[in-house]
Amino acid sequence: MDEPETRHPLSNLCVFPFALWLRVLEGKLAEAKSKKDTLKARSASAKTSKQIQEMIGSLDTSSSVAAFDKMEEKVSRAGGGLNGRCLPA
What we know:
By secondary structure, the protein is an all-alpha fold. It has a domain at 12-56. The chain has helices spanning 11-58, 61-78.
């Protein structure tokens, strides 16, 4: 390798722009990675939202309400003729 004293004086002029270019490139790569991570997160969020909407859409609320009404009727029948009175402790 060349000793520092014997290097060509213009070599520093070539190294500086290369180092600057390398830093710019590193910054662009970091920005691209950040954008990729953001897009992946947004995609996962959209997928989850879609699944939730599909689940909500598939719920049959009429059968749920009917089951609740049926349970309420059973409780009323089991309570007999209490008519709002509390059970003895």
